[in-house]
Amino acid sequence: MYSFLEKGSGFVFNFGSFYMLVRSLSKEDMGIWVLFIAVCAFLEVSRIGLIQNGLVKYISSDGETSYREILSASFLLNIALTIAYIFFLFIGGQFLSNLWNADILTTLFLIYAATTVVLMPLNQFNYIQQANMDFQGIFWAGFVKQALFFFYVLYLFLFDVKFGLTDLAIFQIIAYGTGLVVAYFFAKPYLRFSKKIDWSWVKKLLDFGKYSVGTNLSSMLYKSMDKMMLGSMVSGAAVAVYEIAIKVTNLLEIPTLSAAPVIFPKSAQNAAKNGLLAAASLYEKSVGLILALILPGILVVQLIPELIITLIAGDQYLDTIPLLRFVVLFSLFTPFLYQTGITLESVGKPKINFYFTVVSFFLNFLLNALFITQFGIVGAAYGTLVTYFIVFCAGQVMLKKLVGVETGNIFKNIIDFYKQGFSFVKNRIPKTQPL
Fold first, then answer.
1. Minimal CA–CA distance to 301: which of 271, 334, 269, 326?
2. Once rounded to an integer, what is the mean pLDDT over residues 268-283?
3. Is the pLDDT of residue 260 over 60?
4. Residue 12 class from Cβ within 10 Å (0-12 exposed, 13-18 middle, 19+ buried)?
5. Is 230 exposed, middle or buried (0-12, 13-18, 19+ CB in 10 A)?
6. Which H or E run contains 349?
7. Predicted TM-score of the model (pTM)
8. 79, 242, 352, 432: most buried, per Cβ within 10 A?
């Protein structure tokens, strides 16, 4: 529930900020901001791969004997990674600014170099709590940092204050710094370190993380490739239009993203104690539940896309409707894709997950290049949707061979969840007494 609340509140605040920004900024500036956020997310997702996944897995399986050594080794790796980020932002920022023809991006990336220093301990504290199956602090830290940024944008919007993209980037540092204080308060009971660095654990975490970070980087590129290619092949304004449709899909992904932090440590525990079939069963049940939750939302979007676009972005973005009908179908495949990666890493197969994700990324790149050239903005949706379908089919075949997943059980679970939900509601409806 805390995980769901964290993702849900994060979406509400992000959506609220987006709602106001899309009405305050030009399409070109909005597109630049979306690209900036995509690059920032790309960096933080790589941190998850290198730091979070190994930390959570090994504390779940080896924490009883090596807890302090694992934490110390993980912190050291996180510091080294943050230094690498700073070098990338100083050197790569100019290249990306030239690629997307937006000089202001250079300044935004320099500001984010300071932001990532704040994010290093903030995210580390969250990872430690997740490894200990404690999600309360993760929720409150996320709630505070997202709420602060939302209310800042609300102030700018209501009082018609003139602002630039650099103002937004600078305030992010303040919001994340406040979240860091909250995260430390909740993570403090779990902060137990060894006096010396155990280099064997550094190596073990790095060996696990090198595939996970490659996987997460490829996955992030995979998910952002459509926007990035639109920015270079069409325009920043095209990115803004495409992002409207993506925001609707993000709402439907809340159950998927909420389940992921909980399922990863549980899947690692189940596989260690009960074998691969236990991990397969958890995969089938989790994907079935997530799909049961999001299918009604997909139907609603298909029925009333005009109303949804008007509410989100206003009449000026009604040309997004055909795009939205395709983009929302991404949500049919994302539960499979997320849980495939989680299952492979939890059973100790990060290398396979890495290669699978890299191949998926190159497939998405080629299909997006083909379809954007032919169809423009909507081509990005075509290319990504075709990629998702191909990767879904390949993933199910791979999981059946490796851990024994039965795809048919997923669809049976969807029906079972609906039956259970119907019975739950029916049993709570007061029965009328005969006169």
1. 326
2. 70
3. no
4. middle
5. buried
6. none
7. 0.66
8. 242
Taking residues 160-184, report their average pLDDT.
95
pLDDT tens for 184-230 read 999 999 999 998 999 999 998 888 777 777 666 666 666 666 666 77
**By three-state DSSP, how is residue 400 classified?**
helix
Which residue, 233, 232, 227, 230, is CA-closest to 246? 227
Find the mean pLDDT for residues 277-285. 81
What is the pLDDT confidence band of residue 272, given thresholds at 50, 70 and 90?
low
CA 339 to chain centroid: 12
| Crossing angle (nearest 10°) for helices 276-303 and 334-346 | 160
Instruction: Please give the torsion angle defined by the CA atoms of residues 107, 112, 115 and 121, in that order, rounded to the nearest 10 degrees.
Output: -160
The CB density around residue 386, as the number of other CB atoms within 10 Å, is 16
Residue 347, burial from CB neighbour count under 10 angstroms (0-12, 13-18, 19+): buried
**DSSP-derived secondary structure letter, 52:** I
According to the model, what pLDDT value does residue 225 have? Answer: 67
The span from the CA of 381 to the CA of 6, in Å, is: 28
Tokens found for residue 426:
């029916």
Token pair for 421: 């939900």
Provide φ and ψ at 176, rounded to 5°: -70, -35
What is the average pLDDT across 13-35? 87
* Residue 371 and residue 379 in contact, taking contact as beta carbons nearer than 8 Å: yes
Q: Which residues contact 183 (CB under 8 A, 6 or more apart)?
A: 121, 122, 125, 126, 129, 137, 138, 141
